[in-house]
Amino acid sequence: xxxxxxxxxxxxxxxxxxxxxxxxxxxxxxxxxxxxxxxxxxxxxxxxxxxxxxxxxxxxxxxxxxxxxxxxxxxxxxxxxxxxxxxxxxxxxxxxxxxxxxxxxxxxxxxxxxxxxxxxxxxxxxxxxxxxxxxxxxxxxxxxxxxxxxxxxxxxxxxxxxxxxxxxxxxxxxxxxxxxxxxxxxxxxxxxxxxxxxxxxxxxxxxxxxxxxxxxxxxxxxxxxxxxxxxxxxxxxxxxxxxxxxxxxxxxxxxxxxxxxxxxxxxxxxxxxxxxxxxxxxxxxxxxxxxxxxxxxxxxxxxxxxxxxxxxxxxxxxxxxxxxxxxxxxxxxxxxxxxxxxxxxxxxxxxxxxxxxxxxxxxxxxxxxxxxxxxxxxxxxxxxxxxxxxxxxxxxxxxxxxxxxxxxxxxxxxxxxxxxxxxxxxxxxxxxxxxxxxxxxxxxxxxxxxxxxxxxxxxxxxxxxx
Length: 466
Ligand SMILES: [Zn+2]
Known about the structure:
The chain has 466 residues and is an alpha/beta fold. The chain is built from 17 helices and 19 strands. It has helices at residues 2-23, 64-70, 109-124, 127-143, 156-166, 187-201, 221-234, 246-256, 260-266, 284-293, 301-306, 314-320, 339-354, 362-369, 371-376, 410-417, 444-464, and strands at 25-32, 35-37, 45-46, 49-54, 57-63, 71-78, 83-86, 88-93, 146-153, 169-176, 207-213, 238-242, 274-278, 296-299, 324-326, 394-397, 423-428, 431-435, 438-439.
């Protein structure tokens, strides 16, 4: 009798186990069937791969057949015949300047700023315009495969709000200046506000608040020191523009008797995690100092070429051990927010300026926009590659457009031929935000209407100009 019972029990257990295996462990999302370009340390590329997501994070990366067996998915994203990549990181921009896209071009930086951008910002940059401008930028960035961006502008609460609503990850820093900005009259006000801003947003799943003194030449010694102290006290990262124009670097050398890099290091700015945009006019000592201090740099090739700022020493910086990210800068000086274009141009600019076609190969250009950008931001544990434990930030890219066939080398294809418009799906923090080319988190029609209204206001201000 006992024997019969035991064999019956064994039968039941075996059947339950079989059933459990057939159904698999539950996950929220399974992206399956594409070529998965992981950008992990081994640079694994998995043909017919899959990525499993639970909540905000990646729980498995492997072959589609294995993950289909192991997991039972609540949602599926079919990526057959497509590429699955880590989401791209736009490490330096001013998102809301999208409303000023193309207002003035082919000018000197001074003329562009003084005659166009500053007057427009004084009249039109409000919390509402920043909110809608950021939403426009979010629409463009999500459609183009960007899943994280780093912003320095005004009314950053609105940047954080608009980005969170769009489901887009943002590192947001309120610009701190020594002269009046559209929202603050003094740097002390901006610093005080930044501290409250950090307290409001720190710990948000998509928003990382930062401290953002504009630059060495627009902030006093006291302002810069106070900004570094605030970053140290709150644990927020610090964002700054560094060595963008030769003129300000030469002036800085005269004023401080040392390079801006040495000057900022002396003030303690690099003793907190710092992301420095541009980093063009650096000498060898500067590069060594940035590496020693663990500063991340952001290369903005289009903006640097368009404003004739110069060529950032990307190869030398990386050789010195400085992590380099890639940015679009603002849409008013680019004029789009397209990291596929930046990857392509970053690679070609280094080749042209060094006279070496082997400089910055395609795989490295993709690294700048993904895993190395994450390292420059100090977020390498969280984003930048498709690895277990990281946030589920990934994109699906089609590769069958006329410009993309035939297909031989995955990295060359991504960097030199694929376009932002080839991105068909995007997942950020585990949430599908773009599917079949449509952004699910934004009301595009309402947004387009708002943008048209702002464009009319911009035209009116430009017509009043002398
Ligand atoms: Zn900038």
